[in-house]
Automatic annotation (TrEMBL):
GO molecular function: glycosyltransferase activity
Protein name per Swiss-Prot or TrEMBL: Prolipoprotein diacylglyceryl transferase
Pfam families given in the database record: LGT (PF01790)
InterPro entries assigned to the protein according to its UniProt record, in alphabetical order: Lgt
Keyword presence, Transmembrane: yes
The EC number(s) this enzyme carries: 2.4.99.-
UniProt entry keywords in alphabetical sequence: Glycosyltransferase, Membrane, Transferase, Transmembrane, Transmembrane helix
Naturally occurring in which organism (per UniProt): Niabella ginsengisoli
Amino acid sequence: MDATAPGFMIAYCIGRLGCHVSGDGDWGRINNVEKPFAWIPDGFWAYQYPHNLIREGSIMLRCDWGNYCYQLDQAVFPTSLWEAIICFLLFLLLWSWRKK
Protein backbone atom coordinates (compact mmCIF):
# COMPACT_ATOMS: atom_id res chain seq x y z
CA MET A 1 0.00 0.00 0.00
CA ASP A 2 2.88 2.37 0.71
CA ALA A 3 4.18 1.95 -2.81
CA THR A 4 0.83 2.59 -4.51
CA ALA A 5 -0.49 5.48 -2.39
CA PRO A 6 1.30 8.26 -4.33
CA GLY A 7 0.06 6.80 -7.62
CA PHE A 8 -3.51 6.74 -6.34
CA MET A 9 -3.27 10.38 -5.26
CA ILE A 10 -1.93 11.63 -8.58
CA ALA A 11 -4.46 9.53 -10.50
CA TYR A 12 -7.33 10.93 -8.46
CA CYS A 13 -5.93 14.44 -8.99
CA ILE A 14 -5.92 13.98 -12.77
CA GLY A 15 -9.43 12.50 -12.69
CA ARG A 16 -10.80 15.43 -10.71
CA LEU A 17 -9.16 17.88 -13.12
CA GLY A 18 -10.97 16.06 -15.91
CA CYS A 19 -14.25 16.50 -14.04
CA HIS A 20 -13.56 20.20 -13.64
CA VAL A 21 -12.62 20.81 -17.27
CA SER A 22 -15.54 18.84 -18.69
CA GLY A 23 -18.15 20.19 -16.29
CA ASP A 24 -19.70 16.77 -15.84
CA GLY A 25 -21.90 17.75 -12.89
CA ASP A 26 -19.50 17.00 -10.03
CA TRP A 27 -19.55 20.55 -8.77
CA GLY A 28 -20.42 21.94 -5.37
CA ARG A 29 -23.35 23.88 -4.06
CA ILE A 30 -24.40 27.34 -5.19
CA ASN A 31 -21.86 29.87 -3.97
CA ASN A 32 -23.40 33.04 -2.56
CA VAL A 33 -20.42 33.72 -0.30
CA GLU A 34 -18.05 36.56 -1.10
CA LYS A 35 -14.40 35.74 -1.58
CA PRO A 36 -12.53 35.89 1.73
CA PHE A 37 -9.39 37.29 0.06
CA ALA A 38 -9.12 39.50 -3.02
CA TRP A 39 -6.06 37.60 -4.31
CA ILE A 40 -8.07 34.41 -4.94
CA PRO A 41 -8.91 34.13 -8.67
CA ASP A 42 -12.65 34.20 -9.41
CA GLY A 43 -12.63 30.76 -11.03
CA PHE A 44 -11.10 29.22 -7.91
CA TRP A 45 -13.89 30.55 -5.69
CA ALA A 46 -17.04 30.43 -7.83
CA TYR A 47 -17.46 28.98 -11.31
CA GLN A 48 -20.37 28.70 -13.74
CA TYR A 49 -19.00 25.78 -15.81
CA PRO A 50 -19.47 27.10 -19.34
CA HIS A 51 -19.78 24.42 -22.04
CA ASN A 52 -20.62 21.76 -19.44
CA LEU A 53 -21.23 18.24 -20.71
CA ILE A 54 -24.57 17.65 -19.02
CA ARG A 55 -26.16 20.72 -20.64
CA GLU A 56 -27.20 22.23 -17.32
CA GLY A 57 -28.17 25.90 -17.02
CA SER A 58 -28.90 28.49 -19.69
CA ILE A 59 -27.84 28.62 -23.31
CA MET A 60 -24.86 30.91 -23.90
CA LEU A 61 -25.16 33.66 -26.49
CA ARG A 62 -22.93 33.56 -29.58
CA CYS A 63 -21.73 30.02 -28.94
CA ASP A 64 -20.79 27.67 -31.76
CA TRP A 65 -19.96 24.56 -29.70
CA GLY A 66 -23.08 22.67 -30.77
CA ASN A 67 -24.76 20.90 -27.84
CA TYR A 68 -22.26 22.29 -25.33
CA CYS A 69 -23.42 25.90 -25.18
CA TYR A 70 -24.79 25.79 -21.65
CA GLN A 71 -23.60 27.63 -18.57
CA LEU A 72 -24.90 27.41 -15.02
CA ASP A 73 -27.22 30.23 -14.01
CA GLN A 74 -25.56 30.66 -10.62
CA ALA A 75 -21.91 30.16 -9.77
CA VAL A 76 -21.08 27.12 -7.67
CA PHE A 77 -18.14 26.07 -5.51
CA PRO A 78 -15.56 24.38 -7.83
CA THR A 79 -15.07 21.40 -5.52
CA SER A 80 -13.49 19.24 -8.21
CA LEU A 81 -10.74 21.84 -8.65
CA TRP A 82 -10.20 22.08 -4.89
CA GLU A 83 -9.99 18.29 -4.58
CA ALA A 84 -7.46 18.15 -7.41
CA ILE A 85 -5.27 20.72 -5.69
CA ILE A 86 -5.49 18.93 -2.34
CA CYS A 87 -4.74 15.55 -3.93
CA PHE A 88 -1.73 16.99 -5.72
CA LEU A 89 -0.41 18.37 -2.43
CA LEU A 90 -0.99 14.98 -0.79
CA PHE A 91 0.84 13.33 -3.68
CA LEU A 92 3.82 15.64 -3.10
CA LEU A 93 3.76 14.83 0.60
CA LEU A 94 3.62 11.08 0.01
CA TRP A 95 6.29 11.31 -2.66
CA SER A 96 8.61 13.16 -0.27
CA TRP A 97 8.13 10.37 2.32
CA ARG A 98 8.78 7.52 -0.11
CA LYS A 99 12.40 6.86 0.97
CA LYS A 100 11.77 7.02 4.73
